[in-house]
Amino acid sequence: MKEGHLGPRDRKRLEHAFTLAVEWHAQQLRKGTSIPYLSHPVQGAGSVLEHGGEVEQAAAAFLHDALEDAPNAMERTRREQRIQRDLGLGHAVLRIVLDCTDTEADESLGQKRPWREREERYLKHLAPASQASGLVAVCDKRNNLGTIVAEVRKHGVKYLKRFSATRDQQVTGTSAE
């Protein structure tokens, strides 16, 4: 991508990634809010581009939660195949999405392992990942934090009760034990 220029091929790839994000997230809301979930991957992709990311990274940001939000393992596999097949350089996009996913293949939106276990596994998995994946992960976490801060300001700390981790776990990243 030339300095801020998206050619026709890059535009098509981003449009397709956005279309998949709409397909897979349009019916979701951000946890405990009335905010359409789709705002999260859109803001993540925008942040990636704003911070110098490449088209593959922005496409992956649109899709970074697609696997962990799949309703079942079969749909997760189908989504992986569509990312790989449909995006042109799909392997690079899928690698970033897999690096930024905190669940394993047998987990689904309604059946995830406990938060702490997922976070520890995610951090170990992300540590050796590429810088390309790191930028997408940071943009994701930055957006999540911004939403949490805004909701706490709006509703107070009671907002944090909507999450499976305790307030202390969320703030310190440690268990409450």
Summarize the structure.
This protein is 60% helix and 0% strand.
List keywords for this structure.
mainly alpha, single chain, 177 residues, Hypothetical protein af1432
Structural account:
60% of the residues lie in helices and 0% in strands. It is mostly helical and 177 residues long. It has helices spanning 8-25, 39-50, 55-63, 73-86, 90-99, 115-126, 131-155, 167-172. It is globular. Helix 3 crosses helix 5 and helix 3 packs across helix 7 (131-155). The mean pLDDT is 84.
How are the SSEs placed, and which strands pair?
Layout: H1 8-25, H2 39-50, H3 55-63, H4 73-86, H5 90-99, H6 115-126, H7 131-155, H8 167-172
Helix pairs in contact: 1-3, 2-3, 2-7, 3-5, 3-7, 4-5, 5-7
How would you state the average pLDDT, rounded?
A: 84
Question: What name does the CATH topology carry?
Answer: Hypothetical protein af1432
H/E topology pattern = HHHHHHHH
- The structural class is mainly alpha
Count of runs of 4 or more consecutive helical residues: 8
Query: What is the CATH superfamily classification?
Result: Hypothetical protein af1432
Work out the count of structural domains.
1
Largest sheet: none
